[in-house]
Design a protein that fits this description.
This protein has eleven helices and no strands. By secondary structure, it is mainly α. It comes from Forsythia ovata. This is Vacuolar protein-sorting-associated protein 37-like protein 2.
Length: 232
């Protein structure tokens, strides 16, 4: 009958020296002298097939990938028991070990590259400040001089444009055409009164009156056609 690792034979071996209580690790890590080694099932606990798991370490290990965990194990497997104890009690030793990990080196390298690029961009932006100030002053001068003149000219042109648009609008054209019809009607009526008052002879009256009536009817037909074709 074979025996599991960590059974009575292992329990008979002398226990290592207790770790000093001045370790900078959390109490949950250094509370037992076997915290630096993986927990193994004892003879009494092997019967129920249940291995207790520390609840306070599950969240911290969940973010470690298998490749990173394998690299850490490969780094720690050749270290002696004294070296492992030193990692638990010496913060500088743990820091040196932590900085020697390849993922940490990669992260620090990327951080340094990003910091250097940020510094370069900052210096480049600071070098552009005088040019920016110069352009800002030029914009201020243009805004107070050339832009004001251009805006005034633009306002005048817009006023003229609105005036011309109103003058040649369909409603304005119809109104002026109606006024021309009324003027022609008044002129023809005045000419007819002159004939009745014998202020003008018939020979002079006929061509003038004919011309006025022709103009009146031409404008009347044009006004009627425009009024029916132009929407209200």
């Amino acid at each position: 009958m074979f025996k599991f690792w960590g059974s009575q034979e292992q329990q008979a071996q002398p226990r290592p020296q207790e770790i000093s209580t001045d370790s900078w690790y959390p109490p949950s890590v250094v509370s037992s002298p076997s915290s630096s080694r993986p927990t193994t099932p004892s003879a009494s606990s092997s019967s129920n097939f249940s291995i207790p798991r520390p609840p306070d370490r599950s969240n911290s290990l969940s973010n470690v990938s298998p490749a990173e965990a394998a690299g850490i194990i490969a780094l720690l497997k050749d270290k002696s028991l004294d070296d492992l104890r030193k990692l638990l009690s010496d913060k500088d030793a743990y820091r040196n070990l932590f900085l020697s990990l390849e993922p940490v080196k990669t992260q620090n390298r990327v951080r340094d590259e990003l910091r250097n690029e940020t510094l370069q961009l900052t210096r480049a932006n600071l070098e552009k400040d005088p040019r920016i100030m110069e352009l800002r002053n030029q914009c201020r001068i243009i805004r107070t001089t050339e832009l004001a003149t251009a805006q005034e000219k633009l306002h005048d042109l817009e006023s003229k444009k609105e005036e011309i648009s109103n003058f040649y609008s369909p409603a304005s054209l119809l109104h002026r055409l109606q006024e021309a019809m009324n003027e022609t009607e008044e002129e023809s009526e005045a000419l007819h009164r002159q004939l009745l008052d014998r202020e003008i002879d018939l020979t002079s009256f006929v061509p003038k009156y004919k011309k006025l009536r022709y103009a009146y009817h031409k404008r009347a037909l044009t006004h009627l056609a425009a009024k029916t074709s132009v929407p209200n």
